Fold:
Amino acid sequence: MPEKKQPRQRRTYTPEFKQQLVDLYHNGKRKCDIIREYDIANSLLDKWIAQADNSGPFKENDNRTPEQEELIKLRKQNQQLKMENDILKQAALILGRK
Structure:
């Protein structure tokens, strides 16, 4: 029977660690060497490099554009209004029965 491969545990990285790897890349170290040495995904390093080049911080919330922030706010507000509307509809049905 083949052995089941255990899934890789999700790892978290500090902003300092991310910045250190980005600095290594900017100082001329090849991506493939960094990826192999630190056992990270290629896409992860690419993401960190893009974040550092575009805005600096590595937190997703810090990298949002004002339009993205507004969209998130409007979606939350829309969801809240839908819930309130559903509550009012149910209340009207209950009161209509009396």
In short: Residues 66-97 form the longest helix (32 residues).
